[in-house]
Amino acid sequence: MTKRKHTEGKKETELQKETSTENSNITEKEKTEMKEQPAGEAVETTIEQPAPEAIAMPEKAEEVTVAEEEAKAREAELLEQVAKWKDDYLRLMAEFDNYRKRILKEKIDLTKSAGEKIIIGLLPIVDDFERALKSFENSPDCKTMKEGIELIYNKFVDFLKQQGIREIDALNSEFNVDLHEAVNKVAVEDETLKGKVIEVLQKGYFLNDKVIRFSKVIVGE
Description:
Largest sheet: 3 strands, antiparallel
Structural class: alpha+beta
Number of helices: 4
Order of helices and strands: HHHHEEEEEE
């Protein structure tokens, strides 16, 4: 009986030692796991701080608002400038159209007045012709009639010169297609007359520097 009790007591003692050893092992294991735990997991217990981006968001929003206001102001300024340019363009077009109409009217009036001026200048010559015709009826003297016609002719030529009209010199000059119109060609014995105008059938005239009528001539060959 005593031996049995001693055996049971011995077993209890061994069981207590095993339990104490297990508890000790668990404690050491927990300590080791606590030491090996990563720093990131430990942050879970700390208070999260706001990110710098979150703090800067109100400032960025204010910057965006200011930029939008500046863009709108610039757009309004540009629209105002475009409207001013459009108004100036329309005014300029209206002024140019008025100028064009005025110049056209002046040209028409100038043409009319120029024709009127020429006609007024010709009227005295007509009067001279009428007086010459009357003198032919009452005077049989041919010399007097010739002098009267020469007077009218000279007066008429002077009037044409005043208007910028002058005669083209053709007789005995080199034939020039820009001034002369060859009606015929005639053989000549004089070598100096070959290629030259030997007779003028109808006189040509300049108006200022422009040929308004070619001289009709006969050319020697």
